[in-house]
């Protein structure tokens, strides 16, 4: 059987409230050359009953299970080798694609061998909240991979969650890239390392709203925000990725950003992480390449 154009990977843990809508959003795509790979990460609710009933006999769906809960990061790393498509997307169980999402992406990337990463706008709604649209730019925009890596490293995950990204599968094969880190930075770290691994490639942002992201009490954005993990990630990620080839201006910009964040986010860090801003700033200062002398 020939490989599909898209592999959609969905890790799920206790997603009974959302999984049916996610499945319908994939099944109703106007572009149908896809596979959906769902991995149940030890759910204890009705998630797997719903999935097997709605998708168990679907020819484009593969169902996999972890015998016990191992967390999002490791589940994603078990999903990646299963993907066979030219392009890969991670669609969380509580998010959805719009009906024309895959068609829009396919029509843009199919003849562009230089593109390795795709991003798009999204709308976020749920729990009675007023829907908000994340529109980063008004126009379709392309960057060199190195330029976008600098942008994500110094500004954070400006494009939002995992559902707003897709990547070329061959871009993670050499070097072999995997997800790493805690839930607050696992995807951002992955995108940055992918971009830095292929600095000659291109990345694109499309302003069309192509994802629906659910807001709810159990979502990762909510839990990471309440636990302080999101604030920890702001200071932890730059230190973790210092080994990459960042220019002196980028490192200086990051230092200035972390100093500002230390005043705004520092007081809200969990007690055991109060010194994290200082350690991260010092690590960046020590890493600065010396300016060349004439």
Q: What is the H level of CATH, i.e. the homologous superfamily of the largest domain?
A: Spore Coat Polysaccharide Biosynthesis Protein SpsA, Chain A
- The fraction of residues assigned to DSSP E strands is 15-25%
| Mass-distribution shape | globular
Count of helix runs: 10
Going by CATH, the architecture of the largest domain would be Alpha-Beta Complex
Radius of gyration: 19 Å
Structurally, the number of domains stands at 2
Please outline the major beta sheet: 10 strands, mixed
pLDDT averaged over residues: 91
Structural class: alpha/beta
CATH fold group of the largest domain: Spore Coat Polysaccharide Biosynthesis Protein SpsA, Chain A
Model description:
The protein is of the alpha/beta class. The chain has two domains: 6-216, Spore Coat Polysaccharide Biosynthesis Protein SpsA, Chain A; 228-287, no CATH class. It has ten helices and ten strands. Strands 1, 2, 3, 4, 5, 6, 7, 8, 9 and 10 form a ten-stranded mixed sheet that branches. Helix 1 links the parallel strand 1 and strand 2 (34-41). The longest helix is centred in the last third of the chain and has 17 residues, at 248-264. The chain is globular.
């Amino acid at each position: 059987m020939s490989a599909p154009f898209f592999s959609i990977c969905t890790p799920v843990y206790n997603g009974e409230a959302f999984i049916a809508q996610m499945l319908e959003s994939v099944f109703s795509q106007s572009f149908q050359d896809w596979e959906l790979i769902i991995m149940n990460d030890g759910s204890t609710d009705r998630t797997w009953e719903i999935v097997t009933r709605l998708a168990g006999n679907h020819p484009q769906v593969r169902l996999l299970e972890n015998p016990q809960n191992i967390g999002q990061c490791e589940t994603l790393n078990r999903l990646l080798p299963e993907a066979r498509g030219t392009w890969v997307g991670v669609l969380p169980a509580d998010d959805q694609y719009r009906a024309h999402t895959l068609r829009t992406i396919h029509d843009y990337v199919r003849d562009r061998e230089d593109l390795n990463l795709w991003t798009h706008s999204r709308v976020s709604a749920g729990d009675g909240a007023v829907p908000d649209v994340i529109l980063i730019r008004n126009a379709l925009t392309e960057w060199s991979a190195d330029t976008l890596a600098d942008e994500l490293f110094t500004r954070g995950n400006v494009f939002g969650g995992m559902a707003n990204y897709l990547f070329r599968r061959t871009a993670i094969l050499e070097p072999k890239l995997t997800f790493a880190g805690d839930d607050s930075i696992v995807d951002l770290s992955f995108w940055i390392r992918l971009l830095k691994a292929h600095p000659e490639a291109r990345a694109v942002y499309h302003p069309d709203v192509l994802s629906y992201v659910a807001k709810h009490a159990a979502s990762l954005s909510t839990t990471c925000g309440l636990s302080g993990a999101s604030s920890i990630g702001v200071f932890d990620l730059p230190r973790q990725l210092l080994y990459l080839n960042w220019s002196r201006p980028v490192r200086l910009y990051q230092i200035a950003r972390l100093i500002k964040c230390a005043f705004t986010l520092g007081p809200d860090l969990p007690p055991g992480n109060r010194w994290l801003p200082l350690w991260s700033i010092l690590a960046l200062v020590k890493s600065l390449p010396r300016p060349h002398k004439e």
